[in-house]
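Forgive a beginner's question, but might I ask you for the amino acids of a protein and the tokens describing how it folds?
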Amino acid sequence: MRPLLLTLALLVLGNPPGASGASVKEVEALRSVFRDAGVTGTFAVLDPIEDVLLVHNERRARQRFAPASTFKLVNTLVGLDAGAVASVYEVLPYGGKPQSIPAWEKDMPLREAIRISNIPVYQELARRIGLERMSAALKKLGYGNAETGTVVDRFWLDGPLEISAVEQIDFLNKLAAGTLPVSKQAMASVREISLQETTDSFRLYGKTGWLTSSTPKIGWYVGWIEKDGKARPFALNIDMPKMEDAPKRVQVAKDCLRILGKLD
């Protein structure tokens, strides 16, 4: 189906236009952002007005990687929708074992756990959901390859679950618009706890991730800018061999958004 016809079909169904049906434009100016930061990767953002995907490195934008901690958005959504957790205020246990990050060694609600990317708390949530319900939910959401494998609390960290930057944008576009096939309350709660920055002109929602099980290691930053009543979903991933490179994920994404005039 041609992009225009696909867009019209989605509008008839009540869904917003998505990255998979949009035209693609490589933006040469974005190349300098990656060069100046000394990183290799991809960035893409959906312009909802023109229905065009503005991108650096389209080939990589369509390459799948395990989502790492960006999956916390989905984990929260599925957990709330399935009733595995009552709300983002319910306290979940971390398990009592020593953690690589001391701040994780505390029972806490999802609204706190997502901000410090608490892996053990989210692993507890995944175990409560269970493989069967999680697998069914990922297929319903159309999230990446929707594969969970046989280990319920590691599949987004080690695989087999994988997703591309373009597919991340499709998911985020529907989350921002409230059109995913889950409860409205679940989506509203996920949007609330993923809000990172508010200014007079925009609201920034997002989640980082660091995939350490691959070679090279991959850093993620995904989210959306809400401006003038419209959401502009974006996704970035870069080669991130060491933790010292972590701040580059958000900085490179913001620099790309500024060049494109999305973060004014």
The beta strands are 23-26, 41-47, 52-56, 91-92, 108-109, 195-198, 203-211, 218-227, 230-239. The two ends are 35 Å apart (CA to CA). The longest helix spans residues 165-177. The CA atoms of residues 131 and 150 lie 7 Å apart.
